[in-house]
Design goal:
The protein has 216 residues and is mostly helical. 70% of the residues lie in helices and 0% in strands. The protein contains 10 helices and no strands. Helix 1 packs across helix 4, helix 7 packs across helix 9 and helix 8 packs across helix 9.
Length: 216
């Protein structure tokens, strides 16, 4: 069932941890974009962020995780959308509406943030980062499938995996297309109408495919 949740304010320790994580992530992104992913060491990232190398690894287990940090921040978005959806809203509607809101907000997780386009281009052209991204996406798919199996009546475990793979595949395709268009020089403002139309059409295809299920 949809959850009614509130977010408690972060304590001082949690805020400090978030600030440190953000500082490391930003330093890494700046260095990777400036010098190239393979030409930057974790030690150089630590120095730029004014922390120890050990501290970097406490927050990011691998160098690839450093580069993917801005994307990994949103790995729980779909699960939250499903679990916290308003009463009477289907999981699919919740996923679609969340993506449309991200588009309108020109959010990085919708592929609509110009400043993130160079980082995404680096990720897409670096095999090691692509491989790590696939592992992150696999975990994301499992988490969404678990949420769907619990929340969606009439949807078994295997079908939940299929649904999750399809929903996340749609989102990945749309986000990649949006970033590619930004990389080619389009602006978020000019891209938004077509991006919204593509999203509505794509999620509509998924809805028609699962229309026989009581996915509530």
């Amino acid at each position: 069932m949809p959850a009614d949740t509130t977010t408690a304010p972060l304590g001082l320790r949690e805020r400090k941890r978030l600030e440190t994580r953000t500082a490391i992530s930003r330093a890494a992104a700046d260095l990777f974009l400036k010098d190239g992913f393979h030409n930057v060491s974790v030690g150089e990232v630590a120095k730029a962020a004014d922390v120890s190398k050990v501290t970097v690894f406490n927050y990011f287990p691998t160098k690839e995780d450093l580069a993917l940090a801005p994307l990994a921040e949103h790995t729980g978005d779909e699960v939250r959308a499903v679990r916290e959806r308003p009463a009477g809203t289907t999981p699919l509607d919740a996923l679609r509406d969340a993506f449309l809101r991200d588009l309108t907000a020109r959010a990085p997780q919708a592929g609509m943030y110009e400043a993130a386009a160079p980082l995404v281009r680096m990720i897409l052209t670096t095999p090691a980062l692509n491989a790590r991204l696939l592992a992150i996406e696999a975990d994301r798919e499992l988490a969404l499938a678990d949420a769907l199996a619990e929340e969606a009546g009439g949807l078994g475990a295997v079908d939940a995996r299929v649904f999750a793979a399809a929903a996340l595949g749609i989102r990945r395709t749309l986000v990649t297309e949006n970033f590619q268009r930004l990389i080619q020089g389009e602006s978020p403002a000019s891209l938004l109408p077509e991006a919204r139309a593509r999203a509505v059409r794509a999620f509509g295809l998924l809805e028609s495919g699962f229309g026989g299920y009581a996915i509530r």
